[in-house]
Design goal:
The chain has 179 residues and is mainly α. Helix content is 79%, strand content 0%.
Length: 179
Amino acid sequence: MFATRVIVSLFHFLLMVGMSGLVIFLTYRTFIKANPDFDMEAEIKKGNLAVGLLVGTILFSASQILMAGAESSISMFRLHMLAPTEENASLLKLSGLIFGHLAMSMLLAVISISVTLRLFGRLTRQMEEGKELQKGNVAVGILLSSVVLVSSLYIRDGVSALSKALTPQPSIGRIQVLE
């Protein structure tokens, strides 16, 4: 039993290490390329604090959302290791489920953060956030970062609930009531 707990903990650790690199790479690349207003990477290289703050907040928020999806993946692996049944015997099926949960979480993180920023941009058209960010307006960077952070707190709970709902549960068998 001790060895199994160590294996589960090691899996948890390795999954988090892998996910940290993956979420940073994918989120950074996705949002740097997705900005239609200006080249965010060039602005970061120039020392634009407002853009750097927003990109950093997006990375943090996406990682929080992805961690919500990872909880169910770890639960599935723990269940597979500690209570093996014929239903969850296939390691290939388990790997597919874990990959599916993580991919869904990443997709939801990217879509939700993008939609949040675009919706906020439509609500505040007169501000022209993209131009203000490019000029280095730190107040706009803080405002957009706060919008992303607040929305990710709510989205994280939604992703967690969805992941838990999609996690296979063990069957407890039939229950009979005797009279």
